[in-house]
């Protein structure tokens, strides 16, 4: 079975290179890259918001990913965990399980309010381990 080599350029755009055949010619009908991978490749370069298991939120441009679901963001900024309004004095972090990803604009509005109220730090190019990702939200 022939495989397709995927190369990500520096501008974040995916470039799929068909494999070479037995005579050294590139085959045009290779489709070893799965549909799910192609869909993720379509959002490379888009602005992404990732919440990790300790409550921090990292916002940056989706640069690449790997088979372990690790994600690399460029121009990333890190925001402190969002606290519940009633527990602000204790500094309790809002718990959010993996199946409770943001579903509506209320979460977007809450993040915007939180983003304006807190300080952030610039991380630049950042690797986010897949095992710590709670959710990824991409602005398409």
From TrEMBL:
<dbReference type="InterPro" id="IPR034110">
    <property type="entry name" value="LSMD1_Sm"/>
</dbReference>
<feature type="domain" description="Sm">
    <location>
        <begin position="38"/>
        <end position="138"/>
    </location>
</feature>
<dbReference type="InterPro" id="IPR050914">
    <property type="entry name" value="snRNP_SmB/NAA38-like"/>
</dbReference>
<dbReference type="GO" id="GO:0031417">
    <property type="term" value="C:NatC complex"/>
</dbReference>
<dbReference type="InterPro" id="IPR001163">
    <property type="entry name" value="Sm_dom_euk/arc"/>
</dbReference>
<feature type="compositionally biased region" description="Basic and acidic residues">
    <location>
        <begin position="84"/>
        <end position="98"/>
    </location>
</feature>
<dbReference type="InterPro" id="IPR010920">
    <property type="entry name" value="LSM_dom_sf"/>
</dbReference>
<feature type="compositionally biased region" description="Polar residues">
    <location>
        <begin position="1"/>
        <end position="14"/>
    </location>
</feature>
<protein>
    <recommendedName>
        <fullName>Sm domain-containing protein</fullName>
    </recommendedName>
</protein>
<feature type="region of interest" description="Disordered">
    <location>
        <begin position="1"/>
        <end position="30"/>
    </location>
</feature>
<dbReference type="Pfam" id="PF01423">
    <property type="entry name" value="LSM"/>
</dbReference>
<feature type="region of interest" description="Disordered">
    <location>
        <begin position="78"/>
        <end position="111"/>
    </location>
</feature>
